[in-house]
């Protein structure tokens, strides 16, 4: 997340392109809010998933959600398995790739069995068990346990649970309109360069990315003492900023200074 945040920050400066073949077709330095919003949305999803699995849940429920997340990713990668094993497709891919795909298929089967044998799964109604089975089939993992019952969630629902304020409630839809080739994104792209809105869009996207990074760093500190120790080396103004953003938007209980060091 830190690397992507650095990329977002660099994209906040106008970028140009010098056409060596035909300089007349070069692009003058131009801001690109649409590309930045796509990266910020990825940061949003990363934080929401991490927080839901590792902060909102614990014990057997956390392990079940973690396994669903792993199953989802590995099952998506299985889509590349067919061309690896098809002799009709000429390729020079390393044979180790097919062996890795076979090993990951066994991991998927093992984890699915582990989910179904867990105490949390066994304690669910048949309807909810079938829902989790279907989720594993469809590569879904965004569930929140409420009173021991898993509830399927959208990205914005997972994120909104981490925030005490309603200020960011519509942000996922807003970012998605920029990320997808919707009609809104098409005319918004045109309008922002004619009405001077591009600079404001970049500023809003970069600032929101900063908030997301601060939220993630706080949650990492609550799980990993070495992250909190690294925080102690930051200049005091940076510590205050990270602390303030978490307290302002997530509540006083998320203040970083209240997370004890492992040695305390």
Give an overview in words:
Helix 1 runs antiparallel to helix 2 (33-55) and helix 1 runs antiparallel to helix 11 (198-223). The protein is built from 13 helices and 4 strands. Helix content is 65%, strand content 6%. The protein is globular, with a radius of gyration of 22 Å. The mean pLDDT is 89. The strands form 2 sheets. Strands 1-2 form a two-stranded antiparallel ribbon. It is mostly helical and 264 residues long.
Secondary structure elements and their pairing?
Blueprint: H1 2-11, E1 15-17, E2 27-30, H2 33-55, H3 59-77, H4 81-85, H5 95-117, H6 119-122, H7 126-137, E3 143-146, E4 149-152, H8 155-160, H9 171-179, H10 183-194, H11 198-223, H12 225-231, H13 236-250
Antiparallel strand pairs: 1-2, 3-4
Helix pairs in contact: 1-2, 1-11, 2-9, 2-11, 3-5, 11-12, 11-13
Counting helices, strands and paired strands, the structural category is mainly alpha
Rounded to the nearest angstrom, the radius of gyration is 22 Å
Global morphology: globular
Percentage beta strand:
5-15%
What is the H/E string? HEEHHHHHHEEHHHHHH
Biggest sheet overview: 2 strands, antiparallel
Tell how many strands the DSSP assignment holds.
Answer: 4
Average pLDDT taken over every residue:
89
Neighbour order of strands in the largest sheet: 1-2
- Number of alpha- plus pi-helical segments: 13
- Helix fraction? 55-70%
**Termini separation (Å)?**
28 Å
Low-confidence stretches: none
């Amino acid at each position: 997340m830190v690397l992507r945040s650095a990329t977002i920050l660099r994209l906040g400066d106008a970028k140009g392109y010098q056409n060596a073949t035909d300089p007349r077709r070069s692009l003058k330095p131009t801001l690109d809010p649409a590309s930045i919003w796509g990266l910020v949305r990825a940061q949003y999803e990363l934080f929401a998933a991490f927080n839901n699995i590792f902060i909102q849940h614990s014990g057997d429920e956390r392990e079940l959600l973690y396994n669903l997340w792993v199953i989802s990713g590995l099952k998506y990668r299985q889509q590349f398995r067919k061309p690896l094993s098809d002799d009709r497709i000429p390729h020079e891919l390393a044979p180790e790739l097919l062996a890795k795909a076979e090993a990951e298929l066994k991991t998927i089967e093992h984890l699915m069995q582990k989910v179904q044998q867990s105490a949390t799964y066994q304690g669910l109604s048949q309807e909810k068990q079938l829902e989790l089975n279907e989720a594993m089939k469809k590569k879904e993992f965004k569930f929140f346990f409420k009173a021991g019952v898993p509830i399927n969630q959208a990205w914005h629902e997972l994120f909104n649970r981490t925030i005490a304020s309603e200020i960011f409630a519509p942000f996922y839809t807003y970012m998605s309109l920029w990320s997808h080739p919707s009609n809104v994104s098409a005319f918004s792209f045109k309008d922002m360069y004619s009405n001077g809105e591009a600079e404001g869009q970049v500023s809003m996207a970069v600032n929101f990315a900063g908030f997301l990074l601060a939220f993630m760093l706080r949650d990492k500190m609550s799980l990993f003492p070495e992250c909190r120790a690294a925080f102690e080396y930051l200049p005091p103004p940076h510590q205050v900023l990270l602390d303030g953003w978490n307290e302002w938007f997530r509540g006083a209980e998320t203040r970083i200074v209240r997370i004890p060091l492992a040695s305390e």
